[in-house]
Design a protein that fits this description.
The structure holds 2 protein chains of 2 kinds.
Chain A: H1 8-18, H2 26-37, H3 42-51, H4 56-63, E1 77-82, H5 85-103, E2 116-121, E3 133-135, E4 138-140, H6 148-153
Parallel strand pairs in A: 1-2
Antiparallel strand pairs in A: 1-3, 3-4
Helix pairs in contact in A: 1-2, 1-3, 3-4
Chain B: E1 5-10, H1 13-17, H2 20-33, E2 40-45, E3 57-60, E4 64-66, H3 73-84, H4 131-136, H5 141-149, H6 152-162, H7 174-183, E5 190-195, H8 204-211, H9 213-227, E6 231-236, H10 241-256, E7 272-277, H11 287-294, E8 318-322, H12 323-327, H13 329-335, H14 337-341, E9 351-358, E10 364-369, H15 374-381, E11 391-396, E12 403-405, H16 415-420, E13 429-434, H17 439-453, H18 459-476, H19 482-498, H20 502-517, H21 519-528
Parallel strand pairs in B: 1-2, 5-6, 5-8, 6-7, 9-13
Antiparallel strand pairs in B: 1-3, 3-4, 9-10, 11-12, 11-13
Classes of the chains: A alpha+beta, B alpha/beta.
Chain lengths: 156, 555
C-alpha cells in the first residue's frame, strides 16, 4: 500500500492512540507507522510531533537516526544485504556484486520502476549461515552468486 | 550410538612425522582386542597446541592428554584408562595450564566431545513457549528460594563470590555493578536487560532468549530484588522479532502464575517487566545510548561519569546487564558460587557462549569453559579449517573485538590472558579466517562498519572512522603511501584515546592490531603494489582524494 491510497493521518492517529501518546513511546510509534506505510512521510512526522507534544525537529532527528526507519519512499521490495565481516569472509562480496549486476543498482538506490530498493545492512544476526540476504521479510542464507537470479525471480 | 569414551590422536604434520599413523592403528587394534569398539570411539584431530608433546592422544570425557607417545604406551592406555577406567600412570603429557576440563554429555552423534552447558542447557530441549517446561527443569526455583530466604545483600554477596563478569564484552564484575546500584539511595530504580545484540557475528543472545526466555525473565526478577528495583525493561534489537514475541509471552505467563507483578509469591516484592524494541542502531548496545533510546531519543551515548548505576533511565539508578550475564544468575543462585567457580579459570569463572564462523568446517554456537584456546575451538568444535587451509587470523567479539594472529591461538581465552596480549575477547564471536583472506581487506570491512554505525556525536569517531576507511581503501587500490601508515596510527590512537564512548575506542583496536601483527602484508600493498592474497582490487585508481592530516599535537 502506498500513501496515495491510505490516509496517512488516520494511520498515525491510530498508532499513537495504541501507544498511549506518550513522548517516550516515540520510537515504537515511528516504527509502527513506518511498518504500516512503508516509510515516514513528512506529514506523518508532523502529526506525530503534534500528538505526542514533541518538536518537529526532534521527531525528525529520531526518525533519521535509526536504520529501521526511513523518510524516503522505497521500492515494492527491499533487499537488505549483510555487509559485515562474517558474511564477507564467507563469500559475501561475490554475492553482493551479483545482486548489483542483476539489478543495476548501487547501495541505497531504488529502481526506476519502483520494484526494488537495494540497501546494505549491518549484521542481521544469522551469521552461522552467511552470506545472508533479506528480501522484505524473507531471509536467505548460504547464498551463492548463482542463486541470486533465482531468488529475485520469486518476487513480482 | 553413544560412546562412553573417545580417543583423539593428533594428526598434524609433526605428529605424522613421529609415527602418529602407527599409534592410531595400534589404538584400533588394542581397542578391538578388548572388544571396546562399541564403547570407545577413535578419531583423528588437528593440532591441540601441545607441539611439545606430540604425537599425543586425548581421552575424553576426562580430557586426559597422553604424550609424547611411543607405540608400546598404547597398550597401557587402552588397558588402564579405557578398560579399567583409571588414568594410566606416567604417560600424561607434562602439566601445562590447560583450558579447564571439557565435560561430556552424550553428544548427539557420539563423535564430538560435548560442551559445558550451563546457560544453554535448556535451549533446544524445552518448549520455550511453555512456562511449565521451564518450571519442571528447576525454573523459578532460585527466585522462590531468594524471596523466601535471602536478603538482597546476600544475593549480591553470592554473585560477587561467584566471580561472574559481564559477558557483553567489557568483563566488568557483575556483583560489583549490582552493589553500586543497590547502594545508591533512591526510591525508584530500574533494571535493564541489554538484548540489543548487533555485534557482527554474534547471535548468542538471540539463541538464549529464543531458546530459554524464562531464564532471563527469572534473572531479571532476581536482579531487581537484589538492587531494589520494581520495574525492568528488555531492550531487544528491532530485527529480533521472534525473541521479542517469546519474551512477551514469557512475561505474560509469569504474571499469570504470580511470578511477576504485585507481591510475588507473597513476599511483598513487586516487579513489572516491559519489552522494548530497538529500531536499528548498533550504538544502542552501548548502555547510555540504550538508555537514551529507551527514553525515546536518538541513541547517542552520554558522557560518563555519571554512570547509569547512579544516573540511568530517567536519571534514576539503573542496572544494565547483558542477556548472557543474566542467564548465569539463576544457576549461580541455585548451585552456589563454589560450584560456579568449578568452571572456567580462577579470574574468569564460568562458561562463555561463542559463535564460530568463517572458514571452518562447522559453524555455529557453543558454550565452553573460559580459558579454552582458539586452537581447541577450531579443531574440536569447528572440526578444523575448511578445505584444509591454514588458520591465518581470527576476529574475536564481532567488530569491537580484536584481530588475533595465529601466534596467539594457544592463548587461553579469558579476560586477563587476552588483555595481557593487547587483544580483547569481546562478545564471543569468533570469525576464523584462512590464508585466502587479506588482513587489509578485513580492516576495510570493519572500518566500513564503524563509519556507518558511528552515531556522529563526537568528532574523533565520526571523522576518524571515515578518514581511516578512505586511507585503507586507497591502500587497497594500490595508491597508498608510507605516510598513510603513519596517519592510520595517528587515527587509531585518536580513536582509542579521544572517543566519547566504546564504539570509537573499539574502532581503533582492529586498526591497531592489523598494523601490529600484519604490517608486512600491508606494506606489500604500498611498496610492491601487490595484494599478497589477491583479494584487493589494486586498480591504481584513487578511491578517495588525499587530504593532509593535521596532527594537532605537533602543530
Amino acid at each position: 500500500m502506498t500513501p496515495d491510497n491510505m490516509n496517512v493521518l488516520e494511520v498515525v492517529r491510530g498508532v499513537v492512540e495504541e501507544h498511549g501518546g506518550k513522548a517516550e513511546e516515540l520510537i515504537p510509534i515511528l516504527n509502527d507507522v513506518n511498518r504500516t506505510i512503508g516509510y515516514l512521510p513528512k506529514e506523518a512526522l508532523e502529526e506525530i510531533g503534534r500528538l505526542v507534544k514533541t518538536p518537529k525537529s526532534k521527531v525528525s532527528s529520531v526518525a533519521t537516526f535509526y536504520t529501521m526507519m526511513t523518510t524516503k519512499p522505497r521500492g515494492r521490495h527491499v533487499i537488505q544485504f549483510c555487509e559485515s565481516a562474517p558474511c564477507h569472509v564467507a563469500g559475501g562480496r561475490e554475492v553482493w556484486l551479483a545482486i548489483q549486476d542483476q539489478l543495476g543498482l548501487e547501495d541505497g538506490e531504488t529502481s526506476e520502476d519502483g520494484k526494488w530498493t537495494l540497501i546494505t545492512a549491518s549484521c542481521l544476526g544469522l551469521c552461522g549461515v552467511g552470506p545472508i540476504m533479506l528480501v522484505d521479510e524473507d531471509m536467505y542464507g548460504n547464498v551463492t552468486p548463482s542463486q541470486v537470479p533465482e531468488i529475485l525471480a520469486r518476487y513480482s | 550410538m553413544n560412546y562412553r569414551s573417545m580417543v583423539l590422536v593428533s594428526g598434524d604434520p609433526r605428529s605424522m612425522e613421529r609415527g602418529a599413523r602407527e599409534i592410531y592403528d595400534q589404538f584400533q587394534r588394542e581397542i578391538n582386542a578388548l572388544e571396546l569398539e562399541n564403547e570407545v570411539s577413535l578419531a583423528w584431530m588437528q593440532d591441540v597446541g601441545r607441539s611439545d608433546a606430540v604425537p599425543l592422544a586425548v581421552v575424553y570425557p576426562e580430557a586426559t592428554i597422553y604424550g609424547p607417545l611411543k607405540l608400546e604406551d598404547v597398550h597401557t592406555i587402552v588397558e588402564e584408562h579405557l578398560y579399567k577406567g583409571r588414568i594410566a600412570p606416567g604417560l600424561q603429557a607434562p602439566v601445562r595450564e590447560l583450558s579447564g576440563h571439557i565435560a561430556w554429555i552424550s553428544a548427539r552423534q557420539g563423535t564430538l566431545p560435548a560442551e559445558q552447558r550451563i546457560i544453554l542447557k535448556r535451549a533446544g530441549l524445552i518448549d520455550p513457549t511453555s512456562i511449565e517446561d521451564y518450571i519442571a527443569d528447576d525454573g523459578y526455583q532460585a527466585l522462590a528460594n531468594i524471596l523466601a530466604n535471602m536478603q538482597p545483600k546476600e544475593v549480591i554477596d553470592q554473585i560477587k563470590a561467584s566471580g561472574l563478569r559481564g559477558r557483553g564484552g567489557a568483563g566488568f564484575p557483575t556483583g560489583l555493578k549490582w552493589q553500586f546500584v543497590a547502594s545508591t539511595p533512591g526510591e525508584q530504580k530500574y533494571v535493564i536487560c541489554n538484548a540489543d545484540e548487533s555485534e557482527p557475528g554474534t547471535f548468542k543472545d538471540r539463541v538464549l532468549i529464543e531458546g530459554d526466555p524464562h531464564a532471563i525473565v527469572e534473572a531479571m526478577a532476581i536482579a531487581a530484588y537484589a538492587v531494589g528495583a520494581d520495574e525492568g525493561y528488555f531492550y531487544v534489537r528491532g530485527e529480533y522479532l521472534l525473541a521479542q514475541k517469546r519474551l512477551r509471552l514469557a512475561i505474560q505467563q509469569a504474571e499469570e502464575m504470580g511470578l511477576l507483578g504485585e507481591d510475588i509469591l507473597g513476599s511483598g516484592f513487586n516487579f513489572k517487566l516491559h519489552v522494548h524494541s530497538g529500531a536499528g542502531a548498533y550504538i544502542c548496545g552501548e548502555e547510555t545510548a540504550l538508555i537514551e533510546s529507551l527514553e525515546g531519543k536518538r541513541g547517542e551515548p552520554r558522557a560518563r561519569p555519571p554512570y547509569p548505576t547512579t544516573n540511568g533511565l530517567w536519571g534514576k539508578p539503573t542496572l544494565v546487564n547483558n542477556v548472557e550475564t543474566l542467564a548465569n544468575i539463576p544457576p549461580i543462585m541455585l548451585n552456589g558460587a563454589d560450584w560456579y567457580r568449578g568452571y572456567g579459570t580462577e579470574k574468569s569463572p564460568g562458561t562463555k557462549v561463542c559463535t564460530i564462523l568463517g572458514n571452518v568446517n562447522v559453524t555455529g554456537l557453543i558454550e565452553v569453559p573460559m580459558g579454552i584456546t582458539l586452537r581447541e575451538i577450531i579443531s574440536i568444535y569447528g572440526k578444523g579449517m575448511a578445505h584444509g587451509a591454514h588458520f591465518k587470523m581470527a576476529q574475536t567479539g564481532g567488530s569491537s573485538g580484536s584481530v588475533i594472529p595465529s601466534t596467539l591461538q594457544d592463548t587461553p581465552m579469558d579476560f586477563e590472558s587476552y588483555q595481557e596480549n593487547g587483544v580483547s575477547l569481546g562478545s564471543g564471536a569468533l570469525l576464523i579466517c584462512d590464508e585466502n583472506n587479506c588482513a587489509l581487506d578485513l580492516a576495510i570491512v570493519l572500518m566500513n562498519f564503524f563509519r556507518k554505525e558511528s552515531c556522529g556525536k563526537c568528532n574523533p569517531c565520526r571523522i576518524g572512522t571515515e578518514r581511516a576507511y578512505q586511507i585503507l581503501k586507497n591502500i587497497a587500490e594500490g595508491v597508498g603511501t608510507m605516510q598513510d601508515l603513519e596517519d592510520l596510527k595517528f587515527l587509531s590512537k585518536n580513536l582509542i584515546e579521544l572517543s566519547n564512548c566504546g564504539l570509537g575506542t573499539t574502532a581503533g583496536t582492529p586498526l591497531e592490531n592489523i598494523l601490529q601483527y600484519f604490517m608486512p602484508e600491508v606494506e606489500a600493498h604500498i611498496k610492491l603494489k601487490v595484494c599478497p592474497t589477491g583479494v584487493c582490487p589494486m586498480s591504481g585508481k584513487k578511491a578517495y582524494p588525499k587530504t593532509k592530516l593535521v596532527q594537532l599535537e605537533q602543530a
